[in-house]
Structures are given as structure tokens and as C-alpha cells.
Amino acid sequence: MKAADENPVMTQAELSDQPVNVSRRRFLLSSAGLTAGAFVLGVGLPAGKARAADSKAYATKVPAFLEILADNSVRLQSPFVEGGQGVYSAMAQIVGEELDVDPASFIVVSAPAGADYVAMDNGMRITGGSMSVRTSYTNMRRLGALARKMLMEAGAAALNVPFAELTTEPGKVVHAKSGRSVTYGKLASAALDMPVPAPESVTLRDKKDFRWIGKAMDRLDVYDKSTGKAEYSIDVKVDGMLHAAVQHAPRLGMTVKRIRNLEQVQNMSGVHSVHELEGAVAVVAERWWHAKRAVEGVLVDWAEATSEPENPAMRHMPADYSTDGHAELLTSKTTAKGAEAEANGDARSVLDAAEDVLHATYHTQHVHHAQLEPPSALAKFNDDGSLDIWMPNQAQDGFTGLIAKQTGLPKEKINLHSPLLGGFFGRHFTYTAGSPYPQAIELAQKTGRPIKLIWSREEEFLRDTMRPMAAVKLRATLDANGLPKALEAVSATEGPNDALYGHQEGKADNGAVEGLSGKSYKIENMRIAQEYVKNPAMQGYWRSVGHSMNDFVYECFLDEVADKGGIDPYQLRLQLLSDNERLTNLLNAVVDLSGGWKRGPFTAEDGSRRARGIAMASPFGSETASVAEVSIENGEVRVHNIWQAMDPGSIVNPAIIEAQINSAVSLGLSEVLMEETVYKNGEPTARNYDMYPILRPDQMPDVKVKIIESGAKMGGVGEPGLPSVPPAVVNAVSQLIGKRIRSMPLSRHNLSA
User: Fold this and answer.
1) pLDDT of 639-657, one tens digit each?
2) Beta strands, E only, 605-714
3) Domain topology for 4-227
4) Which of 467, 592, 600 has the alpha carbon at shortest distance from 535?
């Protein structure tokens, strides 16, 4: 392979593991707003030199590596993982804006694990919760600004001119008076010897001077992904590796009692070895298809679990578990008061004393993540005792800690590689039983060879973590004007945080109630609560987390309230938001985008009978509103149009936002129309897409998007586009057929008028 300076058009994938010929810079920055003396800036050299200011304790270090190559391209190690959400491109725009380098010249890769890469101002390091850009925005801008100042200092010395006379143009330091300039690439080495800038000496660009932030730009990964050059975990190869496939126990908690045909399987073509694992049997072979064919033929006698697991994230699935039965259990639990998550006034007293109370119980379903790339892991132990592991993940440091615990290795001996994610939606968090990496590590230890383990789709569906299911009991009473005087929602469920970290008695899990709580509607008496009910199925995070199910519940019930009070649902929302200019503007914007509000039913130009529904959501720091237009064809819902307005406060790349909204709309439609994970006899009834239908291309409606940059604090964009879609669709369908629908998916319902 040619050196980077000999091939300026090398792809991002080709450069990701290439040594660089210019010294590495590491900037350790404090989060914004820290007191004097808390700031840390370090510049690390390959030779081990380092300089640092006062390193007193503080909440968050913000480091990143910038490498400026001879061709003036910039290599940035992103603290976050690219999974199709466009975060690499956003990081390039943000850093490039302050560094004064065209983002198109950036090469962005995932940074390794380690506290040095905690770039979020909340002290976390995860790729999820639509937090990557919004929580690192200022810190990553400051990184670029500091690098630019050091390069200008080097430029002043190289050109022998005062610093104050210098400015920059993309990729170079310019002295306008003499007409001379010098590229960043030529200044990079000299910049290492420049004094470390004080944090107060760096001024970030004014918004009006932005060249790239806020502008629609092509994503950096488009070429590699469209040509097959992009490398995912499932693609990684190392010398001497073997392949592995597994057969999991049909229910969690079961163990291997006996392999009836062990000798026969061991003698199959291509098979290297057969291994018993916790709750699984693995076959190791020279090729994955050999391993898969062999493991599918393994005949196992499984033993039932004898005790409950100590880890709250682990489950022992009973043989009689069914989702229909669990739904009935949840319904029975909604009579309890629950642990209070949010309250205004005295909703319970008002509702208990009211003569006319609207009652409803809504249900939400389990759903699979069903990401395109099945889980995989490649584990390689090295001669020096270190471990290299490649795996799709959303939390490098979290996984490093778990791997250290499993292997007994110190963290510095664990090299976690984070390739591109082939879709994730919350799938690749630290679900020990839902991830193949522990098995890959164990097999690598047992065989003494690098092991690449891929779960088939069937095994993935068996071990996937579920979005929680819930039964939500709602009550409301109205005033003389038909407006809600009191509203209560009690959700019987186990939230994802409950499931992964253990339930805290008397406390509501935010992941269980968000979308019910946090609403901006002005209701004098309001109460939101959770009644904890443990679920035998493994629970996890799904795109938009609690919002993905609870905004459906709340926004559909709000339409019921509107009908009860004889008020149009659009007008009701306007009245309840009369004191909120931002959300009023948003609501009016989506109605204007749809060509004006018409609830229906009405007859469209093609002769079909249609209706529209409206809904709002406030997920992850952003505000959204959707209008859906639907008809019923042969007993099935057809969604013709989705209009969505989103106010994320401020934006980096509107093209990425629009793409993410389209993605979220498609997943929201899939959830509301047909997706559902069904368990019978302790096992999922679907083990692949043949029994787990997802939205087809021909079911995707026309989507129109309006982005409103209100200037509010920056919110997320990857997940917020989903939650308002299901209730908008269901509100439209309910209006069209003349009866209320209180559960998803719609495929379960008789939709005749």
C-alpha cells in the first residue's frame, strides 16, 4: 500500500489503520463553564513528551487526537461510533469550523476506549440517547480552535511576522500584508513547540461567520459504504483466525446437560472443535458456514435453571411465559398507585371526586431491534498477554470494564476496536447475555486461536434484548370548557434501567415513563407514575427508549380527551400550549407543512377515504410534531403522507437531520403497523424476518420535513423523529374507523369501520 502522502485520494477505510507521518496532537480540554484552574490541556508527542496545565479534579476531560497529514487532510479520532447516524461527518464539521479546515478533507475513525476520550459535557461516553453531538459540541469546537491557534503561532515563527497580523484560510495560515502563506501540514511539527494556549485566549467563531456548521454537506462515509469499502465488525479478518457459530438454549437460564451426537459433529467436514458454553453450544471451524451447518445439527439435552441469577440484567425464562399472559398481568397491576415520577396539583383527589371521568388502558408491545448487521465479535489474544477484540458497540469504556472483569486482564491490556455499526438502535449496549463477545473470548482462550463469532439471525432473535412492554391506565376529567382539569397515567412495566441495573424501590425508572412525563401541556392537576412489574424477558434500550411507546399512549389519550370535550385535537393542543411560544410555532409549522389541518374523514383525489392524525413529542432535548394521513385498503392501514416538523434548537447539518427523520419515521411506522415480538412457552415465535415482518419499501409514505432552528439549547436528532409518528397514525386510523385503538401494532386489530 502506498504511503498516505503518495495517495491523497485514499479512502477512509484504507487510512483508518495507517501510521501517520506527522506528530499526533492530543488536546485535553475541560467542559465549558468550569472554574479557573480546572482546565487541562495536554499535547502528547510520540516520544512521550507532554505538557499540562493545572490538572486539579474536575468533572469531564475532553480529549481528541488530531493528526494533520502532509496533504493537509486531517485525521480525527471521534469519541463516538458511527452507526449510520452521521456522527463522523458532524464531528468533522464542528472541529473543521474552528480549525478552518474543509470537513471534506477529514478522515474520521473511532477513538479507542479510555477516559481520555470522554468528550461529553455530562461526563459519559456512550453513543446513544441522541447525545453525541449536542453534549460534545462546545468541547469539540474548542478543540479545533486550540489547534488553529497553535498552528498560527507556528506560522508567526515560520513567516517571521507578528501573530496579530495572521489569519487563516482553509488549511493554511495567511499573512495578508506580504501575500505569503504556509499550509497546516508544513507547520504541524513546529506547532508542537509552541506555548500551550490559555483557554481564555481562544474565541469561538460567531455563528454568522460559520462556513460549514449549519450547512448541508455530503457525509464522509457515503463513498466507502456505497462501494463496499466500509468495514464492519462482521468483515474483520486476522491471520490464523477460526470461525464459530452457536446454538443457544431455547430459554434463558437453561444449561447444557448432554450433547447426544458430540462425536458425529466433531467429525464433520471443516469442524475444528465443539465447546459447551453457558447456555449454549459452540462449533469452531475453518469457515463460518461449516460452523453454522454443524452447530445446527447438534442435538442437545438442556437442563432447567435451578436458581435465579444474581445479576439483575440476567433472566431465567420460565417455560410458561407468554406475552399475552404478561399483558394480562400488567393490566391487573394498573390499579396500584405506583411510584410517582411527576406531579402537579392533586390529580388523584380531583379525579376521585369527579362525577365524570374518562378511563382508558393502553398497551405497548415488545419489539426486536432487528438491525441489519447481526452481532459478531472477533477476539485475539497476543503473545504479550494483551487482548484485541473487534465488536459492534455503543459504549467502549463500559465494554472494556466488562471484558476486564471476565478475563482478569487490566484495562490497559485490552484493545477494543469499534468498527462501523451496521445499524444499532440501542442494540449494542452492555447486554452481557445479549452479546457474543463473552463467548468469543472464551472460545479464543479454549482454542488458543483468534476466534470470529457471528450469531445467525435465528440466534440473534433468541438473545435480543426487548423494548419493555407496558399497560398504562389513564384517567382524566374535564372542566366546563372541555379542557383537562386533571390527568393521571400509571404505567405497569419494567423499565430498561430497572432491568439492567436493578429496580430501586419507590422510584420510577425514567426510561419507563419518559413520554408520559415531561410533557409541556398546561394541565393544572397531573400525575405520572410507574408500577414496577418484573418481566422474564431481557429488557433493553430501543430507539427513543420510553418515548417510543409512551408518546403513543399519551398523545392518543389526548385525542380521546379532545373528543370527550368536543374540541378538535389540533385546537386542544394549541390551547394547552398557549403559553409556550416555541411549541405553538412548531405545531402550527407542521400543520402549515401539511397544507392546513383537516382531520376528516375526507375523500382524496384518488377516491380513497382518508383521515389525518396529529401528535407531538419532546424527546432528547428536541421538539417534534407529526401529521399522518391514512386510508384503509383491504383491512390494512396505508399511510400516504407523514409531515414532521422538528425543532432541535440549533443544527450542524440539516441534510443529516432530514435523513434521520426519514429513518425514524420508517421505524416508527414499522412499530405501529406490524412489529411485535411474541413469546409463547418461554420462546419467541419469530426467529427471523419471515415471522417478524418489518416495513416494506412499498409501505413507506411520502415524508415532508421542516427543520426549525429556534436557537434553544441544542437537542438530539437521531431518535426524536420517531415518537410522534405512531400516535399520529393511530389517531388518524381511529378517526377513520370511528373507534378508539389503544394498542400496537395495528395488524392485531380489526380495522373495519
Assistant:
1) 999 999 999 999 999 999 9
2) 609-617, 623-633, 636-647, 679-680, 683-684, 702-707
3) Aldehyde Oxidoreductase; domain 4 (3.30.365)
4) 467
